[in-house]
Amino acid sequence: MPRYALRVEYHGAPFSGWQRQKDQPSVQGAIEDALRRLEPRAHAIAAAGRTDAGVHALGQVAHCDMDKAWDPFRLSEALNYHLKPAPVAITGCAQVSDTWHARFSATNRQYLFRLLTRRPPATLEKGLVWQVSQKLDVAAMREGASYLLGKHDFTTFRSTICQAKSPIKTLDRLDVEEIMGPSGPEVHFHVQARSFLHNQVRSFVGTLERVGAGSWSPEEVKAALEATDRAACGPVCPPQGLYLARVGYDEDPFAASES
């Protein structure tokens, strides 16, 4: 059975999350339904990350096994046709070896979080950003973020329902950037690690927003981390500003088709 890597973009609002769920719309379910239209049988796809309800993706990666050999471009076009009108698009497709795995072959995951800082309610960006009404101290947020880099026990920033075997992770990147977005000033958080705990990024952002608002000092982020206690975490921010931006592999499966 030929295996294909799929790069997937989606708007998370209509879905219960990535993972297939009984009687609930999911991104995985939408893609598997589209695959069923192409090859009428049960399909089970795997993804690099299981995003939560309301979380978006610019570069989720999944893989599927097909009965026949498809031209990757034609497979992506056929899937996009059958995915309509769901807000899901296959933006890349490549044939890979049968040992390649979207999750287990990945070397890193990169997330983007968008925080809009303006008083008028968001209209065009509604559902795509987390909005706060006050200007934030980005320099203080960067200082707070610096304490989170590296290898740590991230129990404080881990959901109580997290199923990971260990709270110890290595955070490779947590950049805080101020930009002018299409609807006003935004703070972007660029976060990268090999893997993440459940709600880890949203816990980071919610805590750092408190630093930017002046409710926490940057040093309190360090104290919260060292507490290894979920109760020491700041508020967990809502999901709508979070995007799975990119998944890294030793060899990019889509590189040849896009060169």
TrEMBL record:
One of its GO terms (molecular function) is tRNA pseudouridine(38-40) synthase activity. Pfam families: PseudoU_synth_1. The keyword rRNA-binding does not apply. It comes from the Bacteria. The keyword Isomerase applies. It catalyses: uridine(38/39/40) in tRNA = pseudouridine(38/39/40) in tRNA. Substrate binds at Y111. Residues 9-104, 145-250 form the Pseudouridine synthase I TruA alpha/beta domain. It is an enzyme of class 5 (isomerase). Keywords: Isomerase, tRNA processing. The active site is at D52 (nucleophile). InterPro entries: PsdUridine_synth_cat_dom_sf, PsdUridine_synth_TruA, PsdUridine_synth_TruA_a/b_dom, PsdUridine_synth_TruA_C, TruA/RsuA/RluB/E/F_N. GO terms for biological process: tRNA pseudouridine synthesis. Its EC number is 5.4.99.12. Belongs to the tRNA pseudouridine synthase TruA family. Homodimer. Formation of pseudouridine at positions 38, 39 and 40 in the anticodon stem and loop of transfer RNAs. This is tRNA pseudouridine synthase A. It comes from Poseidonocella pacifica.
